[in-house]
């Protein structure tokens, strides 16, 4: 029987709820109260395919009870009435019992049974019987295979560390160490001794030492020594936007002088050129009369394409011949008099001309964007003056944001545009159409509790939830129909 409370949510929605609603709320609460934790979470499926977590958490002994209390309150706050006095179906916390095993053995059990069934297949030496999953009642090997298939099908991240230094920085440091090893004539260490110690730990593959040299655990992220450095991409993406890409590493505690590039090359996917020897074996030839119109509605072939004597495709397009408008003739009557292939040739020519003009405009705009990238000669003085001006407006501009402003960019904050004007920072209202739409959704959310994200990304689930609030029986009938 369908659950009358089901609102059309998918398995992925249950995972997103735990990540974006539950875990995000816990992190915000702990950060506001100055509480620190770190650990790992693993993901497993329920009997109905939804997500549940196992977490191993470490914290200061005097703070652990408060952390557990905050986490429990956030976990059970939604639909609290359905739990009654027993909240264990929603949340359960236990201290690690040293007599039963170490924290490593506890979490290794959940990691192992979600990686490979061979590790749990066969006979349990303690009982002399096949290993059985106590949660499903099936053999452990079968449960592992099911969990792996479930995670791959729904693209669920099965393991996630939190509260420790960045794994992206770890990867960039190991990349940098490999680049230094391949270039023995270049620098073999970083200028700053503390940063070089973190690099050495990453190069040696010792993650524990890497955490220690970065600043340890149970500290704010801003206190880590090395962070990932980002920069604006050299080329626009497919949507004409200038995105952000990884530049390398840097230390906020030292400043811009500590930036080190780990991505000196930009790679691009290009179409492979045909091999000469393959084309020589199978020479092509042109047919007289050109390509004929397709019999079907669609044609995946290029509009104008021919081959040379060696069978290699020629990409240069021949100029399309289209009918000319005679003098003194009505346009409407002339269009109706054209044959089908003449109308197609005319529309093709107009589209190609428009596409070429758009391409030229995009190329010129790209060049203008690139000309804004170099920093001005007095960028240090400008940065100092702009920070003081921003502080007078109650704004804090970070290092990456300042680099963006120095290169001619603007910042969009809370419906306003933050931009430099001479030696001052000014705030102007953001009148872009997309900004107005965002402000409208925010107003609906603030005044009427409308979840714009759910409406835009999952309209069926949102409608079922609204219908269930007013007519639960109608919502249940609609949900069963959608199933």
From TrEMBL:
Domain of life assignment? Bacteria
Domain Replication gene A protein-like residue range list:
2-118
- Give the record's keywords alphabetically: DNA replication, Endonuclease, Hydrolase, Nuclease
Question: One GO molecular-function annotation for this sequence?
Answer: hydrolase activity
Mind telling me which residue stretches traverse the membrane in this protein?
none
**An example of a Gene Ontology BP annotation on this entry?**
DNA replication
State the similarity comment.
Belongs to the phage GPA family.
Specify the protein name: Replication endonuclease
Per the UniProt record, the source organism is: Salmonella enterica subsp. enterica serovar Stanley
